[in-house]
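Q: Predict the assembly, please.
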Amino acid sequence: MTRVRRWLPGLLLVSPSIILIAVFVYGLLGWNFKLAMTDKHNEIAEIPGRFVGLENFTGIWGEERWGLSVRHSIVFTLVFVAGALVLGWLLAFLMEKGIRAEGGFRTVYLFPMAVSFIATGVVWRWLMNSATGEHAVGLNRLFHYIGLDFLQWQWFRDPDWGMAAMAIPAVWQMSGYIMALFLAGFRGVPDELREAARVDGCGEWGVYRHVVLPMLRPVTLSALIILGHISLKVFDLVVAVSGKQIITDVPATFMWTAVYDSHDPAKGATIASYIVLSVVIFVVPYLIWNARKGNRS
Amino acid sequence: MAAVAVSVAGLLTLSACGGGDKQDTAGGPAAHKKVEVFSWWTGPGEADGLKAMREIFAKENSNFEFFDAAVAGGSGDQARALLSSKLQANQPPDTFQGHAGAELQGYIKSGKLESLNFLYDELKLKDVLPQQLIDQITVEGQVYSVPVNIHRSNVLWFNPSVLKDAGISGAPKTVDEFIADLEKVKKSGKIPLSIGSQWTLVHLLESVLLGSLGTDAYNALWTATSDWSNANVTKALENFKTILSYAGTPQDDWQPAAKQVADGEAAFNIMGDWAYGYFHNPPEGGLGKESKKDFDWAASPGTDGTFMWLSDSFTLPKGAPNRDGAIAWLKVAASKEGQDAFNPLKGSIPARKDADQSLYKDYLSWSLEQWSADKLAGSIQHGVVANDTWRTAITDAVGLFQQDKNVAKFQQALVAAAKNSGQ
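A: Predicted assembly structure:
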């Protein structure tokens, strides 16, 4: 009885959230996977669709648009994650060196995070206008004014590296947040350790190389996970910048056209499943690593 | 704890939404008098036109109250996404806007729409609408929508002074002439053809297909015996490729592309006749240009004598909460008075043949004249000839073609699109 009294109130308190998450997150996730394994390629038919196993999952690789959107997603992820990590780290490094008015700079760099991807996209669509030469606007115009015309390019309309341009607004938006993470990481390194290293004959670079950076590993990993899952799910930014055009197609926009334009629920569910799985690939190792670390300590 | 709070808040919001919807659709007798009209007419011109029709509706129906459920967003993308979830939940608005033609097929096949044959008989609409139009929107003997307006898709807009500088005397009559003219403009240093985002290329494709294949062959593409793999289609797609090679840098949308022509940067642009309002209207909503001087138009190359149409229409969903109110609205939308109030403001022409010609000036009078004389063909991009699945597949193929310019692969994709459309 006493034992029950100990765990029952707690359980009652969290059970609404458990139930809601079970139904609306995991239940619907399961339903989505089930739908992806049927041949319900027509939203009109009232029949639920036959079970076809993994046919949709393999079949989609035969579609050129899918290959393209996966490629775009990878390019975007690489540029975005690397860009935000490097820029965020650099900003944090400069802050950590103790500049004047640090609080002011911190706020300024964090501000873009308060903007939604849609608003960012609308502004950057103009900045990254692809017109060049006389009629250039936005950044191309700026390059023209300062005599750097050779830097003008098509931005997100470039067939090969357009998605790298698409990652620029995302880097702009998220690097401040990454800076905050790293700054906390830097501050978390005790001064005693740094001093000890200096006493042992480390130069300033050596202190970072051997003491500070290794201690930033957990922060880096968290940042990687956060950026990675944002990047793989990216939708709003792409839609705000370019709409649903093949040239900037990513899995999420493909899913949108599959569901709302092609009226193909099974295909939409298949793409949704792939998006979830790709995020899982990012997150699960992190969870395992976290759990191991928890056990160790 | 935070999670609990969030989920409880979420639950409250959910139930609040549910409650709200119910009130709208199945409330007491007072609420029943409301007529919910769902459209995507929120822009300048079109919203004014809707208001004019709404005033007529209010005058004729004192027992109903018009409820404007317009959702913003050009060409209705957002509106249709919202609409399809409303219909799936069996909570239809009383009447909704849709492009007349194949775009409504999904709704028709899933039994969401009531046939309007009774209304056509009652109002004798078959006598006042062009026979070809009725043929093209009839599905198995039933008509499911009332067309309010007609837009023309195959219009070639051009800048007369740019043409003059390039040594071109008039608008090109055929696709081959068009290509020769594009080359001349290119030599003069201007952008030969301005284009916008991906959908404007689908729009361009439909004009090139029509101009290259001819009206009958084009219309046959959308029948059960269609053959997309023949050599004529290949030739048309080669033309499309050649024409695209003269295109300037893609602009954000159709307006900046049209503006390039108005500003004298580009010579030609193929866009629907909503571009006229943009060229002609005073600077708040348009560019304030003078027609025939700053800009001019002609049928797109090779399509003279054919009117490639698209039309906004209203429907009667099954289970409409206020069916009588919806029918009252459809009667206004079908009436001469309603169409003549709406169309001059929207910048389109009425679907009815008995419109008051004096209301339609400049471009619109030309368009009205052509509408009564021309053969008809339906637009791809704007939902007339191909259902959503087919249109999306064509759009995808065009988007991929824009990148690799591979005609053979493009044609294969179009053949597959026709086969898999389920139309």
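The mean pLDDT of chain A is 89. Chain A touches chain B at residues 13-14, 16-17, 20-21, 42-44, 46, 64-65, 68, 125, 129-132, 135, 154, 157, 159, 242-247, 249, 257, 260-264 (CB under 8 Å).
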